[in-house]
Task: structure prediction
Amino acid sequence: MVRICSDSSTMYDSRQAKEHGFSIAPLSVTIDGKTYRELDEIQPEEFLDLIAQGHIPTSSQPALGEVVDMFEAGAEEDEILHIAMADGLSGAYQSACAAANMCEHKGKITVLNSRTLCGPHSYLVENAVRLAKEGLSCEEIVARTEKLMETTMSFLVPADFDYLRRGGRLSSLVSYVGQAVRFVPLMNTTEDCRRISLAGVKRSFAQAVDSVAKKFQSMGAGKDWLISISHAAAPDRAQQALEKLRAAFPETSIEVRPLTPAFITQGGPGCVAIQIIHK
Result:
């Protein structure tokens, strides 16, 4: 049997992941002098309260030892497929590769760079669990997962550029544009999925969502797709995006979820991510 592992880019805590049939190693956040395993030890609401008090957060990949322990717990009996969040946007993939090489049964561990994060990443892992339960081999699950990875697209509408700038994930063009007071920047992941770049500058959040909808329409989005809206304490913006996207894609599944502390650290409070993947 193939055991599926991942990290908290899936937006699951350890207990929830176990209930859904996979294991995770949480990303970590440090704020006000303390380090927490996100979702297991600190929730988005508490994290945002600390930011509001003026504390500057940082984030990091899962602890190497914790990933090793996760692999060792299953590799003796099962094959392991670890689906990590996008390499370049986090060190989680490289950390998982290093952990796999440290394991006694490293030949039974496959680490896959999902090239995405959050909503689509969650779906890839959930689908891999279903395939594993159906009895597919690790190679078959990887092949199907890689095919789905080709259908993902991620957009971000930040409210504060400082968080992205500190994280070093902005292209030079976005850094130059900075925080345009009168405009709303629309950003997406670069083609190699390793950085975040400027996709356009709009006059309003509504126009930014309209632009995302047009891109999804050009991709052929319909009933067999999943749209994910994730936000950092921006329920009104998330609801506005939901209403517009429901009108544009009445047959498409759309989910709304809060962003986790590690992604709030990168995108900043108020940011909204809109993503899509074919099911």
Notes: DSSP finds eleven helices and 13 strands in the chain. The first strand starts at residue 2 and ends at 7. The mean pLDDT is 92. Residues 23 and 74 are 10 Å apart (CA to CA).
